[in-house]
Design brief:
The protein is α+β, with helices and mostly antiparallel strands. The chain contains two helices and five strands. The strands form two sheets. The protein has a three-stranded antiparallel β-sheet. β2 and β3 form a beta hairpin. The protein is extended and about 45 Å long. The two termini are 15 Å apart. The relative contact order is 0.16.
């Protein structure tokens, strides 16, 4: 039986990853409207930080790489055709890059993939 008491957190992307004293700090960001901005333009702001030992980070990197490979093999994730990134109209977050401005911390690797959500099961509501 799953432990329903474990807190869950949402983030849109990573903002920064750093190594200090053998510990890896991963800052996650979320896109939120800025109430102080007259146009209420969404901005990327840090919302969570995970700190872990370097060996745990290396293991996580391998796990994430394995997940990307499984998503590619299943057809959920595919490589883009253009070296410069996603073709227009494909993938998640379309148009968000302009709203996030210079704070965007995406790597070139993220632009090599497109997400195909067709055929993915919808999330079932919790009972």
């Amino acid at each position: 039986m799953a432990n329903n008491l474990i807190p869950e957190h949402f983030a849109d992307t990573t903002v920064n990853i750093s190594l200090t004293g053998g510990l890896v700090r991963i800052d996650f960001g979320s896109i939120r409207p800025d109430p102080d901005n007259p146009q209420n333009t969404p901005e990327l702001s840090t919302c969570h930080r995970v700190i872990m030992p370097l060996n745990g980070f290396i293991k996580m990197f391998g796990d994430l790489n394995g997940m990307v490979q499984k998503l590619e093999q299943s057809g959920v994730l595919g490589r883009t055709n253009q070296a410069g990134g996603q073709p227009a109209g494909q993938g998640m977050g379309q148009g968000m890059g302009q709203a996030m401005g210079p704070a965007t911390a995406h790597s070139n690797l993220a632009n090599e993939f497109r997400l195909d959500t067709r055929g993915m099961p919808a999330a079932e509501p919790k009972k």
